[in-house]
Each structure stands twice: as structure tokens, then as C-alpha cells.
Amino acid sequence: MGDTDTRDLTRQVADYVVAARLDDIPADALHEARRALLNYMGCALGGSGHRAMAITWEALAPYAGPPTARVLGRAGQTDPLLAALLNGISSHVHDYDDTTPSNYIHPTSPVASALFSYASMNPVTGADLLLAYALGYEVVTRIGDATYPAHYQAGWHSTGSVGVFGAAVAIGKLLRLDERQMVWAIGLAATQSAGLREMFGSMAKSFHPGRAAQGGYTAALLAQRGFTAGEHALEGPRGFAAVESAAYDLRVISDGLGRQYHFHQNTYKPFPCGIVIHPTIDACIQLRRSHQIDARHVAAVRLRVAPLVRDLCDQRDISKGLQGKFSVYHAAAIGLARGKAGLAEFTDEAVNDPLVRQVRECVVAEADASIAEDSVHVEVRMRDGKSHSLALEHALGNLRRPLSDAQLEEKFRDQATMLPAAQVDALIAACWQLDRQADVRRLVDLAVPGPA
Amino acid sequence: MGDTDTRDLTRQVADYVVAARLDDIPADALHEARRALLNYMGCALGGSGHRAMAITWEALAPYAGPPTARVLGRAGQTDPLLAALLNGISSHVHDYDDTTPSNYIHPTSPVASALFSYASMNPVTGADLLLAYALGYEVVTRIGDATYPAHYQAGWHSTGSVGVFGAAVAIGKLLRLDERQMVWAIGLAATQSAGLREMFGSMAKSFHPGRAAQGGYTAALLAQRGFTAGEHALEGPRGFAAVESAAYDLRVISDGLGRQYHFHQNTYKPFPCGIVIHPTIDACIQLRRSHQIDARHVAAVRLRVAPLVRDLCDQRDISKGLQGKFSVYHAAAIGLARGKAGLAEFTDEAVNDPLVRQVRECVVAEADASIAEDSVHVEVRMRDGKSHSLALEHALGNLRRPLSDAQLEEKFRDQATMLPAAQVDALIAACWQLDRQADVRRLVDLAVPGPA
Fold first, then answer.
1. Which sequence spans correspond to the domains of chain B?
2. Above pLDDT 90, what percent of chain B?
3. CATH topology of domain B275-392
4. Of A182, A10, A222, A238, which Cα lies nearest the Cα of B201?
5. Per-residue pLDDT tens for B371-387?
6. What is the tally of helices (H) and strands (E) in chain A?
7. How much is the mean pLDDT over chain A?
8. Where would I find the MmgE/PrpD N-terminal domain in this sequence (chains A, B) (predicted)?
9. Distance between CA A341 and CA A334 in Å, rounded?
10. A196 vs B191: CB contact, 8 Å cut-off?
11. Chain A closest CA to B349's CA: distance in Å?
């Protein structure tokens, strides 16, 4: 493929986005894009009732524009820039959205949050939305890969700081910006790039993809009207890469642009909790199923885990759902006691469930440097003296064990509890057939609670 | 004064802002704060008609909330968050606002742009606004000093990236946030910290203080409602200083907080153009005045300037006002031909004025390493053979030669051309007496064109 010249990188990216057509993208890549959007939509529904959403809407509604846009999962309308922010918060607040392991970015939230807001008030075909999303995803992933790991390790939450580029080019594509305007949109995105990992553990983490969606959307609107920006936002000596990443390879952004796609780098979490405890949950669910384990009779659980798991998820004496998301003991307990780990398993109720607690209290976790981060060894000893064990190599949701389409649907249903079942079915079908939708507004209508 | 412990720095700053009272601030510092606000108000008026303002308003008005807030210098109303953005753009777009030479930040634009927007729609006393501004200025200056030069040299436009903290604490003070909320507001500001110097030379530069004002205002509103954020936003391992500055001294933020103020670090530009050509303009105005120079009879002008001046401002063959702002030849020409250098001297008209051009064409500028950046040597030779020269050590506007109150008023009047003279007089008087205003809305009403 050969190295490309990156002295005019921002313009190259703009050119690509302006010229790209849906037909250019291979069918398997588009299927992965649809999977990502289905997963996104479910997460936006699942997070739509979170307190961070209510706070944001209450705090900012007095300053919101005419209510022309819809917020996924919520009744009522607001202006599309606030809706973009809200969609970004809901879809990320449970940390349940997609992740590209090559750069740790959650790529869909910032891009799709802007797009579904835009498409809730403007006539957009499903094909146009899918294309705009695909371009946003591709731009985010390339910029993320080009600056990983330095950018992330420095402390940037790249879901926000890189996500903003994806939102800008995606909305810019729907606005049919010309090349010069697209360059400005990228510039206005770069100069809003923000989000610190110091916010992890607070609501502000979910604010990052929301603000990226809103900022990228704003960038495209301003550029459309002729608001100028520096034209070397990515590659310039004081541009994004130079300022926000101690090391980077700009060719990763330009090489193969329009010929190679990165959709298969994406992964979907089966469980709404810290990724490092996924192997434990997965193994315990499998053990319960294989051996019809009755959790009431569990005497002891011994885990051998990668040392990182103890570093990050060593809380056993917990009382809050949020703590459960970062407890390897809770992970084993819900796997054995409930055989599943959806949103309901990380509530305060679940953490305080007597059976879950009873199992949690008999779990020990041993750090073992010979266990990989994506693996676990679990041994369950029953009161009757029987013992069951499993050595899991790769957890479900890993690139090597991706969620099936059916598993993505199951995850979706688990989060779409505010919608009637028939509406959920229709919404899932509409997501799978996104590029055949004549108007995405019909799909978005399915994603909000009806007037009842 | 002794070193303070900075492990809880964000909370210390929050404590200070929450507890501070106007009486705590020395009278001379408050006078400087009033000077800064007068200068700010003039700049906001002067930039209010800029094309970047019209574009922003047009692009974002469809998404703006109820029109309850005023934009300085403009008829009509919009929502206060958009008004904060617009005030930030207008007050910085001519690069004519204040500068603290210790960190190159334009500190007032991000803070006051949010405050005057807020106070245009809420009852706020002048004393409360002055206090909130003073706290915002102090926070910006301390964070700027603590991270200068590394943060700026890395490519951050700290007027935006640091300015956002000032807007957040200033609005937070008016909202009477408690300490915990103020900590969150600082966190939400930190995680929006943005603005790249790669945008210099485009409209996006003025977007930085605007977005900082809007983002800081938003941070305070969200924190008020309980939107949580990381609580070590300034000092944490992945907080603002660690992520955005390769070197810093956090004690500069905390040492003497509430006892030492930094208002005398502020400077006001007499001329709306690159700071490095200020000595040339100043010297030429002085020569014209001292020797009653008639520019029509100038035969030759010889400048000896610091080498940096040639590096940055070497354009002679120019046709646009914006180019004039970075031309040492134009600087000499307007000083000699017009005896002043206000906004009118950096228009396309002025640059193409035959007399200005005639003088410009007989200027030569010699880089001389013995001339300091704030100095110049000018020699003017007349057609009759007479010669006049001046060696200027410090340009007007420098910390050693600050603009007098009367000169600030003159600068204000030069920019307030959209308002009737009597209204300008009343507005200037109201600014000087800010802390005696019962309701700042009356002052803001004076800063917009009347219904006439």
C-alpha cells in the first residue's frame, strides 16, 4: 500500500469523507456497522433512565431550543444539540457500549449520538445514516489507532477527545459539506477535543461522548455557514496529534483510506461492568449451566485471575451496584447465582441480594501471572464435596469470541425494558434493515416510549 | 508564605471561591478589575459586528433556547449559553482584549463573556458580578502561571483551555454553589479544557474564549443539579495539569490564595494588531505629534526592530485589513499618516488608502538583535531633507507603561461606534461604578443598540 504523504492529511480525510459512497464499503463491513448501531441503540435505551440523564435535561432544558429532536429512550423532545449530548450520556453511562481494543475507544457513542439526533428531526434515509456512521467510525478508529497508546496513556479519555472528529465528519456528511467546509469542521472538532480520564468513576465520564457528539455537530453547523478554522488540524505543528499525543503515526490515518475498513476491530460487551471481570462471569455462567449448579449449595469458589484483575476489581465488601461493576467476587457470585449478568445484576438490589452475597462471601481470588487478562480459572466446591472447574481462554465478547447477532439482540432486549415487546421487535428489525429505511425518523419513533 | 499541600488542590480552590467576599480584595486590585471589565466591554462592542458573529448566530440560532439573554453590542436576544459563546467571540476576534504577559492568556474574555450573559437575564448586583469576575480572573491567572510555559508552548491556546476554569468558578459563584458542587464544576470545566494554537489566523481562535465561556457556564449549571465529576481535576494523576502540561508547579495555584492577587499582571492593548509592532506604531505616533509631521512629505522611514518583528510581521505588499495587523510597514505608515491606530486603521480601506500606501512603501525595517522586543528605533527623513528620530524603550500598553484610565476610555469609544455618544458615556460611567449597580441588567441594556 505504500506510505502516503501526510503534509495535507486533514484535507485528505475531508476529501475522502466528501466523496465516499455506501457502495464503496464491503458488505461484511456494513454488517458490522449495523451490529454496532444495534448495540448502540440498546445501550442508549438502557442508559436513558440514568440519573445523569435527568440531571442534564433538568439543568439545560431552560436553555434548550425548540423541541424538534428526540432523545433515544425518553418521551418528550428537545433541540438536536442537547439531544446529541443526552444520547451520548445514555449510551455510555453504563460503560456497556462498544470498544475497539486497538485503542480503547468507545467509537459509536459520539458518532451515532449526533446522527440519531440529527435524523430525528431531518429527513435522512437509512442508507445515508449508515454511510455517515461508517465514515465517522472509520475516522475515529484511524485517528485513535494513529495516536494510541500515547494519547490514551497520557490521560485522555479518547472516546471524547477523538470521538469529536467522528461526530463532526458524520454530521458534515449529512449536511453535504464541501471539501473546504469539511476541513473547517475537522478543525473545529480538533479545537474542541477534550475529556480527562481523571473523571472516571463519576458521571463526567459519560459526559465525554455526549459533549463530543454535541461539539462535533456544532462544528459541522458552523463550518457549513463559513466559520473558518485552521486547515491542518490533524497534522499541523500545533494540531491535534502534536499537542495531544507524545507519539503518533499519521500514516495510520491516511494509508488505505477508502480501501481498507476497520469495522472488524470492534467488540461488544456482553456484561455492563469492568472488562477484566468478564472472563470470571462468563466461566461461572458456563459452569452453572453445565453442572446445574444450585448456588445455595456452593461452599467455596476459587478463582485464579490475571494480576490486573486484583488491582482493579478487588472489592468484596460492597453494597452499591456501581461497586459490583468492579468486584471480581460479585462477578463470580452473579454468574453462579443468576446465570446472567445484565443491568439488573449491577443494581443495589442485586448487590444486596442475600443469595448473591452468600456466594460472594465464599469467593477467593488469587492473582496468577500465568493467567492472561482475557482468561480465568474457576473452581467451585459444593457442600456435598463435589467440585467443578473450568479454564476459560477467551471471554465472550472478545474479538475471538464475538457476540452473535442473536446475543446482541438479547442484550438489546435486556436494556429496552421501557418499550413494549412488539415495539422492541420492530425496532430491532428496523436496525438490521437500516439501509432500507426511507426515513430514519420512523426508526427513531420506535426508540421512544409511546404516548400510551 | 510557605509551600502549601496540593494533594487536595481542587478542593482548596473550590473552598476559596465559595468563601470569598468582595471586602477581602484590596481596593487597588478592584480598580484594576474594573479597568479590565471596561476594556472587555469595549472589545465586545468592537467585535460585535464581525462576520464570525453573524455566522455563529445564524448557524446556531435555530437550536437556541428562549431569547432571555443579551449579546453585548447586538440587538436581539438569545439563550444565555449561546450569548456567552457570542460574547466570547466578539471580545476576542480583533485580538484587542487584555493579556497577562506572565502566561499569554487573554483572561477576561472567557470569564466576563459568561458573566455578562448570565447577568443580562438574572438579577445580579454589580458588586456580586465584580467579585465573581475577580475570582474567575484569579483562578485563570493562577492556573495559567502554574502551567506556563509548558502548556502554551505545547500548542494549547490557554485563553480557551485555561479560561474555561474561570468561567466555571465565576458562574458557580453567582449560582452560590456549595463546596462539593464547586469541585464538580471545576471538574466539568477541566474535562472540557480545549483549544489548539493551530487555529490561529482563523475565526476558530475567537471560538476558544467563547466555547470556554459557554462550557464553564454549562459546567456550573450541571454541578448545581448534582452532575458529579472527578474531584481532583487539577492535581490528579490524569487531571488537567498532568495531562495538558509537561511541567507545572501546582503551588503557584494554592500559595497565597485569598491573600495575594494578580490583577496588576494584566495589560491592555492600545492597538488592535500584533503586539510586536506596537513599539513602531507608538513611536511613529509620537514622532508625528512632536514634529507635526505631514505624511505627504515623508521621503523615507528607517526602522530598527527586534529580529522577531521581521519574523512575524514582514508583509509590505498588502491589500487586506487583516494583513495590516501583521505588517510592521503598515504600522509605521498609519502612525505617521493618521496619528492613531484604532480598528479603522486595520480595515481594507485603510490598507488601501493612497497616503498610507505611499508612506508604507518608503519604510525599511532592519532586524537588529540589540533592540528588545518591546523597543524600536525609528528615523523619518522628510523631502526637505530634515530628519526626525526616536528610540522607544517600552511601548504603550506594556506593564511599565500601562494605558491610563482616560486612554482606556478612548479605546472604548473607538470601538463603541454602534451606540449613541450619550449611551457610551453612560455605559463607561456604569462600568467605573460597577460595584454600585443594583442590577447589572441596566448596565447591559446600555451595551446594546437601542430600539430606535
1. 9-269+408-447, 275-392
2. 94
3. 60s Ribosomal Protein L30; Chain: A; (3.30.1330)
4. A238
5. 999 999 999 999 999 99
6. 22, 6
7. 96
8. 11-247
9. 7
10. yes
11. 23
